Amino acid sequence: MPRSSRDTIVLAALVALGAALRLALARGDLWLDELWSLSFARQIAWPWDVVTTIHHDNNHPLNTLALFLTVKIVGAHAAPIVYRLVPLAAGIATIPLLFSIELRSTDPLARTRAWIAATLCACSFLAILYSSEARGYAPAALFAVLAFAMVRTRAAAGMTSSRDRALFAVVCALGLLSHLTFLFVYAGLAAWTLVRAVKQPSGGWRGWITLHQLPLVVIVGIYLLDARKLVYGGGPAFTFTDVVTRVLSFAAGGPDAGIWKWIAFAGAVTVIGYAMWILVRDGDDEWVFFATSLVFAPLVVLLSYKARFLDVRYFFILVPFLWMLSARALAELSTHGLAGRSLAVTVVLVSVVANLAHLIAPLREGRGHYKDAVVTMASSTAGDKVIVGSDHDFRNRLVIDYYGEEHPAGKSIVYAPAPAVAAGRAEWYLTHTIDPAGDVVPPSTISPGGQPYAYVRSFKYGGASGWNWHLYRRAPAATSR
Questions:
Q1: Residue 155 and residue 107 in contact, taking contact as beta carbons nearer than 8 Å
Q2: Residue 234: per-residue pLDDT
Q3: Which of 279, 252, 272, 250 is nearest to 348 (CA)?
Q4: Confidence band (pLDDT; 50, 70, 90) for 357?
Q5: Could you read off the pLDDT of 413-431 as tens digits, one per residue?
Q6: Angle, alpha carbons 334-21-248 (nearest 5°)
Q7: How much is the mean pLDDT over the chain?
Q8: Are 449 and 418 in contact (CB under 8 A)?
Q9: CA 229 to CA 173: how far, in whole Å?
Q10: Please, are residues 91 and 20 in contact by the beta-carbon 8 Å criterion?
């Protein structure tokens, strides 16, 4: 940890800033993926059902287990932030963990690297986003960094004691239970420790096998119990190139489209490539880990296993290691005179400001105003039933049903699927769009199923997780109950 009281105070302030941003973004409504996970937690009867009963890619077992316990304690309709406590804790803890890992390095630039890595982590848009929603991405990243730290601090291929090896296995198990993309990081750790084993004069192979036998048992067990039976919930169309460029652009603070996405992507590739060159130049075998985890493992998975759906969030577990590489490159750059220091500081400041700029709309609008929409319909409906349809029966119904369970204004919320809308049974109708808040002007009238509806108002979201809702209503006299 910090070597001076001043550094301790500054690190505490940095962690407090990162925590405040994450807590602020964790206040709004739960969105579809979170509610989907919550619905799994409400269905199961026993904790182990998270791997033996629910076989779905939206089930992140450790997160679902946390939701299961939360529901048992406070119910299913507590404040949204309560269901996000585990990822919040994981995201906040990652900041001082990264600082500690880099500071303990023998590199004379360790202190500079520690501050850069911790700063990028605290202010990262992606880190704040995924640390503030009830999913498994932030915990997976925390356990990935922790497993990396355990390997880095051991010079030998195997851990020095059975206790260390058992702890490494537990960390890997928790990472895998957080999200299966932990396998990217584990592949890098396996390759890295293998290189170290080969370097040993004798006994290296035995140490390597001993270190990995328990994690491999866990991997096989999770595959047999859960992974081989996974059902996929769907998602937007994608191309591999688009997802990769968006990940690196977001990591650098860039946008997800346009010329600036490519500029941010190019900058990120340049910084990462420079860091990899430094590792190879210095004879540091960490390059094996980074090359395997960031490049080879994802490529092998994508080439050998046809991905049905792909998004930025599936690569978030690798983002902390991009911060590490960036910290190494920028710390090295800072040693090249005033020009190098100025450029390194500029890169960090631009990245931080750009990442924080991404938070303006999400902090203002959250992941959507679904509860407000349901309350608006209930308070404006004369009868005791609020009948509503939408342009996507699965996505919207799950959200409507959840917020309708609280019986706003004493009304029952009844969802009308597409055939019921066509039959004229729905008084209300919702359309959804994923365009950034404020960019969509909904039409004044629509006719789903041949029935006329007039626009009432929009409920926007912040352009990250979630979507906009546009509310329409039929004339009361034309509504069939």
A1: no
A2: 67
A3: 252
A4: very high
A5: 999 999 999 999 999 999 9
A6: 50
A7: 91
A8: yes
A9: 19
A10: no
